[in-house]
Write a structure and sequence with these properties.
Blueprint (H helix, E strand, L loop, with lengths): L13 E2 L1 E3 L2 E3 L6 E6 L4 E7 L3 H16 L7 H17 L1 H12 L3 H20 L8 E2 L7 E9 L2 E5 L5 H4 L1 H10 L2 E5 L6 H12 L7 E3 L4 H10 L5 E5 L2 H12 L5 E4 L5 E4 L5 H13 L11 E5 L3 H14 L18 H16 L3 E4 L17 E4 L6 H4 L6 E7 L2 H9 L3 E2 L1 E5 L3 H10 L4 E4 L14 E2 L2 E2 L4 H6 L2 E9 L2
Parallel strand pairs: 1-5, 8-9, 8-11, 9-10, 11-12, 13-14, 13-19, 14-17, 16-17, 19-20
Antiparallel strand pairs: 2-3, 4-5, 6-7, 7-23, 12-22, 15-16, 18-21
Helix pairs in contact: 1-8, 2-4, 2-6, 3-4, 3-7, 4-6, 10-11
The protein binds adenosine-5'-diphosphate (ADP).
Adenosine-5'-diphosphate binds next to helix 8 and helix 9.
Length: 492
């Protein structure tokens, strides 16, 4: 195992909330311990936020929203976002190290994310110019003109998941800064550090105090308090469908809009004419990337019967080439799962797959030896899976692939859509007619052809069914952080 010097950010041994541009101790003075998933050792302590802490942070965000932040023009917010981009770029290696220690992201993965993350911030900088209304020709009887004005929605509650907060938090921070909103972030208890360090860096980049705040703690305490707070105007949530339902219930009290990006059980469909040299690694990394802790992971792999045997053999061989291990080792592709809870959950699903009668074709075990204290699982492939098995229906959120045979395009459309989710999907084929048929018929928020998981901030990313509603990225995303006012002027 590689050892690194403890980052300065962790030397104090415990992290407080970041509210109004400074660190603030939790009112109840309670902390929770967070662990390094690579070795199971305690990493640091996080403030355990309560209703009172959330209330203080929301008040700070409200005050900032009504203060000088309102006077920032689109050009000012653009300049601010570009300065933020520079500060994040300069400190990205530190943020990556924190992310790796905190939730186990392999260093190689966050290196690949660098470009994506910086492009996200640039995208949101361009969107400052899109916070605008329209002049609309009207049919009113008389001499009226009509227009719409768009204004920032107000204080946003951003509830951040644990699978990739270093980048995921920008779906909230970026759009909040672009639109002139303010925010209270509640990072996940298993992965708060890159969020806490980012909000601190925002202050040094010139973001006014109170515009972006972070309160740490447990989901059913700090998270629930944020979701129900009457002075929060919108909730942006990414996480599990079960918590998504809680968020909807909590938001009902003050009737606040929510955007929800929830789970998936995405189909990845391989036709016999596909270029298997590309499809084998593409399909594999569509599942094993981030050890499968990706909402749009293509975990249901439908393979046309004619190539079933060859495909299973090649995928199983490919798994043997993947390096699982210490996430600080730059040659490692799969790090540990983020928490013991997640490890136990994935191991349980592997047992469920075996008991359901699926064939275990690769992996399936926790790593032992030097890795036995960490939360590592081998890339795991089940073949001969039936779409009705639990491993094909329930989100596992781990490195577990289910290979399901099919014969015709019609059949696979039915199987692909026979799921409670609708986040992503992909098709591998050389036939453009087959590709376009599937593109039209898969019910999912995004469909990839001959690739998997390409997400660009300028295109809205979202889901159908239990995968949630609302968009991340694209102009729809920006619109959902603005409210519209219709204006009618009588000229007589
Ligand atoms: P998982 O079940 O995989 O841990 P969650 O959806 O529970 O995923 O977690 C995503 C985020 O939601 C985390 O920041 C977590 O703290 C938060 N959270 C969990 N429960 C609630 C809740 N009842 N209300 C608000 N936020 C919550």
């Amino acid at each position: 195992m590689i050892t690194v010097q403890t980052p300065n950010f962790l030397l104090d041994g415990r992290k407080q909330h970041y509210i109004n541009g400074r660190w603030q101790a939790p009112i109840k003075n309670e902390y929770i311990t967070t662990y390094n998933p690579a070795n199971g050792e305690a990493l640091t302590q996080l403030a355990r936020g309560s209703d009172a802490d959330i209330d203080i942070a929301v008040q700070a965000a409200r005050k900032a929203f009504e203060g000088d932040w309102r006077k920032y023009s689109p050009a000012d917010r653009h300049a601010l976002l570009m300065s933020v981009r520079q500060v994040i770029e300069q400190n990205l290696d530190e943020l990556r190290l924190l992310e790796t220690l905190d939730m186990g992201a392999p260093f190689a993965r966050t290196e690949r994310m660098r470009d994506h993350l910086l492009r996200m911030i640039s995208f949101f900088a361009t969107q400052t110019a899109n916070c605008r209304g329209e002049t609309i020709p009207n049919s009113l009887p008389g001499n009226f003109s009509t227009m719409t004005i768009r204004a920032p929605i107000g204080v946003v509650g951003g509830i951040i998941p644990w699978n990739a907060p270093i980048a995921g938090q920008w779906w909230v921070i970026g759009v909040v800064l672009a639109t002139g909103c303010t925010a209270v972030l509640k990072p996940a208890e298993d992965a708060s550090l890159s969020v806490l360090r980012t909000v601190e860096l925002l202050t040094s980049a010139g973001v006014p105090d109170g515009v972006i705040n972070a309160v740490t703690g447990l989901g059913n305490e700090a998270g629930a308090a944020l979701a129900k707070h009457p002075h929060v105007n919108k909730i942006a949530f990414t996480g599990s469908p079960a918590t998504g339902r809680e968020i909807i219930r909590a938001s009902a009290g003050s009737i606040k809009p929510v955007t929800l990006e929830l789970g998936g059980k995405s189909p990845d469909i391989v036709f016999a004419d596909a270029d298997l040299d590309r499809a084998v690694p593409g399909v594999s990394m569509g599942v094993f990337n981030n050890s499968g802790q990706v909402c749009y992971a293509g975990t249901r792999v439908f393979v046309q019967s004619a190539i079933q045997k060859e495909f299973v053999a090649r995928i199983s061989e490919f798994c043997k080439t993947l390096k699982v291990g210490d996430p600080l080792d730059r040659s490692v592709q799969l790090g540990p799962l983020t928490s013991k809870r997640q490890l136990d959950r994935v191991l349980e699903y592997i047992e469920i797959g075996k008991s359901e009668g699926a064939t275990l074709s690769a992996g399936g075990k926790r790593l032992g030896g030097d890795y036995s204290n960490g939360f590592y699982i081998e890339p795991t492939v089940f073949s001969d899976v039936n779409n009705n098995m639990r491993i094909a229906r329930e989100e596992i959120f781990g490195p577990v692939m289910s290979i399901i045979p099919f014969d015709t395009a019609e059949e696979v459309v039915g199987l692909a859509n026979d799921t409670n989710f609708g986040l992503g999907g992909a098709v591998w084929t050389r036939d453009v007619r087959t590709a376009m048929k599937l593109v039209h018929e898969i019910r999912a928020g995004q469909v990839w052809v001959n690739c998997y998981g390409m997400v660009d901030p300028s295109v809205g990313f979202g889901g159908y069914k239990e995968s949630g509603f609302g968009w991340k990225g694209g102009t729809q995303h920006v619109d959902s952080f603005l409210y519209q006012k219709a204006v009618t002027i009588n000229h007589d």
